[in-house]
């Protein structure tokens, strides 16, 4: 039978599963066990995770990954970074598929089981696979990712309204005594006053230390075209926006997005100050002087207009 099939043949069912399938599915569509074994042994098919196979060279997207997990453990629920990529959350690449399972199971190739309680409300279906919900996935990842990645995820989630500070506090209460909760508690405390990362927290310290008032953090700013974004710090009366760039490299797309955002802010009548991590840590006095100078000038302009 194999001689009558093209080299790139795979079961029809694989199309709905992102290109992944099992040996059993191939046999159900007409192959013999020996023919399946030959394709695996010669590398035409490769095992990608657990029991899941794919044509050699197949690029696995998020849909394929959650289905690879489902094909191996159909009673499991994809979680952590596996669910995060399915929900298009900004998390680091992870070759391992993570699955909540109801009982202890030994790890399989690129597949790791986790024993954690899940309510039915915490689970959604993506295709055939069960996956933790968008919000539950964020909460779980905050307690499991490396610190820098967790900081990035919480900032992304809070600024886009995918999560509120109240959600974070509720998650800490719900996860008492479980792995990752100390880190979630740290995130709650660090974001309580609106700071979404180390650079924002440092800026807040400088503003408070200089006894500057009238500002708010992580505040939404709009223009005639709609929402521009959230300002790291906004002095609304003076229409002064302060942005911090942090200490990580964001790449060309982020650089361009920041410049587009700044142009919209200026066009909407805001004054924009930008500071780097180096500014905040090595030249804090200069940062405060620039903020004070901008506020003095803007308040004088407001007084003349008033």
From TrEMBL:
SUPFAM superfamilies the UniProt entry points to: Restriction endonuclease-like
InterPro entries (UniProt xref): DUF559 (IPR007569), Restrct_endonuc-II-like (IPR011335)
Pfam families per record: DUF559
Residues passing through the membrane, by range: none
Segments forming domain DUF559: 198-295
Protein known as: DUF559 domain-containing protein
